[in-house]
Amino acid sequence: MPQAGSLCVWRIQNCLTFPAFRSGGAGAKVASDCAGAGVGGGGGAVSTVTRAQPWQLCRAGSAGAEALASGGAANTERPERPGPLQDETLGVASVPSQWRGVQGIRGETKSCQTASTATAEAPAQTRKHVDAEVQTEAPEPVSLQPVPQCDGPRLVAFLRRVEAMVTRELNKNWQSHAFDGFEVNWSEQQQTVTCLHTLGYPPAQGQGLHVTGVSWNTTGSVVACAYGRLDDGDWSTLKSFVCAWNLDRRGLNPQQPSAVVEVPSAVMCLAFHPTQPSHVAGGLYNGEVLVWDVSHPEDPLLWRTGLTDDAHTDPVYQVVWLPGPQHGHRFQVLSVAADGKVLLWLAVGAGRLQLSAGFALAVQQLPRSTKLKKPPRGETEVGATAVAFSSFDPSLFVLGTEGGFPLKCSLAAEEPALTRMPSSVPLRAPAQFTFSPHGGPVYSVSCSPFHRNLFLSAGTDGHVHLYSMLQAQPLTSLQLSHKYLFAVRWSPVRPLVFAAASGEGDVQLFDLQKSSQKPTVSIKQTQDESPVYCLEFNRQQTQLLAAGDAKGVVKVWQLSSEFTEQGPRETEDLDQLAAEVAT
Amino acid sequence: MVVNAEGIPIRTTLDNSTTVQYAGLLHQLTMKAKSTVRDIDPQNDLTFLRIRSKKHEIMVAPDKEYLLIAIQNPCE
């Protein structure tokens, strides 16, 4: 029965007429009724509409709803199977251990053997030979290229062009005063003379030995000195020394020489070899001449003359090295002694010095160029005390004698000497010219390295004489000291300078250009006026001068620059001096 | 002495070795002096070269083909 109050119209009419719009109230009512009925019917299988309802439409609607509802429920009812993240157990992979298992040695032995070498013997012999000589050719002298003839006219034209200009300049120079007094100093000037080294050997000084000779070696770096006594009038068995100092070595100890040679007798003079830096010759008081090698301190003696008939019988005052007779590399030693003999020694094997030539001075054979005092009866020998060789003529030498007169001598003299002394080599008389004497024995002579005719001699009268070879009278005579003069040497660089060692303990340097009367520099070597016995210039390092004195001290002086550099016109001045020969 | 353009002496009054030494050295020095003068002023050229030393004076007269060298001891 339809409820009261609803607008729903119960129609039993045509269910197919399906009004699209119904009144909402009535439709809702119907729908809710149907839904209630449908829901009540759900929860099971597709249910058929079991209710016979008046409206089929409602039943269709509810049937759809029921189907829908049951479809969802039906989906949830499927069968079970495993998902992707599940644990599984797989099989184990393993390697069996081989430790301590027998590895098994795998090796092979092989051997090898070189094939045997085949040898065969066969003789060989040169059948023919040829001689050939080999000779180095002397270098061709530098020669001027020959001029082709076609150059003649062009050369003449050139000379004509320039001749006027050149002669004009030449004439201008003669009269020019532009450069008067203009001098350029290229190196540092040293103003004063200073003492660089004071060398001594204490054991020798303790024995009171004097320095009797100094010498520089060929390289200019080693100075050697000889110890002895100059005032002994007797034979002496005094042991003495030859000491050498190497000045270029670092750590030079002035009291400790780099080489010391012990000598059984007093050494009177010393000379280094001109080319061998370590060979030094010395003359002894007993007349022997020895040559040492200072680079071998344990066995320095190289050669000796021995005390034979040939050797000197008096103290040897000077030794000099000379080029050997064959002009080779051999050198010979010339020794000069108070017995009047001048001997030339050549080194032969086995450490002996053999006499190769000799000269003897006898009074009767002296040239009578000057008047000499008559010698005491019975004495025929003239003792020689000093020797100097000319640098221009190698066979010319000057001897200083005990009689005070220098002698001009020559190595090439032929005349045999009148002497009673035995000798293996015939002795010759060397003297060619006698110069006017000093007042006492001549202790030192020195030939000028710049002029062939000039030489100096110094003696015990305290005078230095400048001689020219051409005349017997000295050119000038200078009094340097009131005591003896022991040594005089020309400077190797300045033609007008010489140095003299005096008995008053000073070394005097003379510059003939500045003043010919008094010394330019006077160096005081010893404090108590004990004499200076020897001095030598260093030819390599020209500013050094070595002087040895009676105290056993060798002082090396460094000279000021004025003594080491040549001035502009010194050679000409020297020539002028030499030309003052009295005619 | 007279030296040609290559530095070879042609005529001389000195000895051979001195001549050759002077010729070689002075030829080089003259070339250097000439190039110095030209570098300073390209319109200029070397006419005469004098070298004065302690002992003497050397005079060089240069030319295109030859060089005349004279050595003099000046009197002071």
Automatic annotation (TrEMBL), chain A:
Subcellular location: Cell projection, Filopodium; Cytoplasm, Cytoskeleton, Cilium axoneme; Cytoplasm, Cytoskeleton, Cilium basal body; Cytoplasm, Cytoskeleton, Microtubule organizing center, Centrosome
One of the protein's GO biological processes: intraciliary retrograde transport
Keywords, alphabetical: Cell projection, Cytoplasm, Cytoskeleton, Phosphoprotein, Repeat, WD repeat
Subcellular location, principal: other
Region (Disordered), start-end ranges: 69-88
GO molecular function, one term: dynein heavy chain binding
One cellular component (GO) term of this entry: ciliary basal body
Pfam families: WD40
SMART domains from the UniProt entry: WD40
Similarity remark: Belongs to the dynein light intermediate chain family.
Function of the molecule: Acts as one of several non-catalytic accessory components of the cytoplasmic dynein 2 complex (dynein-2 complex), a motor protein complex that drives the movement of cargos along microtubules within cilia and flagella in concert with the intraflagellar transport (IFT) system. DYNC2I2 plays a major role in retrograde ciliary protein trafficking and in ciliogenesis. Required also to maintain a functional transition zone.
Protein name: Cytoplasmic dynein 2 intermediate chain 2
Lineage of the species this protein comes from: Eukaryota, Metazoa, Chordata, Craniata, Vertebrata
Gene name in the database record: WDR34
Automatic annotation (TrEMBL), chain B:
Keyword field contains Aminoacyl-tRNA synthetase: no
Cellular component, GO annotation: cytoplasmic dynein complex; microtubule
Keyword Transport attributed: yes
Family annotation (SMART domains): Robl_LC7
Domain Roadblock/LAMTOR2: 1-72
Domain of life from the UniProt record: Eukaryota
Keywords assigned by UniProt, alphabetized: Cytoplasm, Cytoskeleton, Dynein, Microtubule, Motor protein, Transport
Single GO BP term: microtubule-based movement
Compartments, record wording: Cytoplasm, Cytoskeleton
Function (record text): Acts as one of several non-catalytic accessory components of the cytoplasmic dynein 1 complex that are thought to be involved in linking dynein to cargos and to adapter proteins that regulate dynein function. Cytoplasmic dynein 1 acts as a motor for the intracellular retrograde motility of vesicles and organelles along microtubules.
Family from the record: Belongs to the GAMAD family.
Protein name, UniProt field: Dynein light chain roadblock-type 2 isoform X2
Species of the source: Tursiops truncatus
High-level lineage: Eukaryota, Metazoa, Chordata, Craniata, Vertebrata
Gene that encodes the chain: DYNLRB2
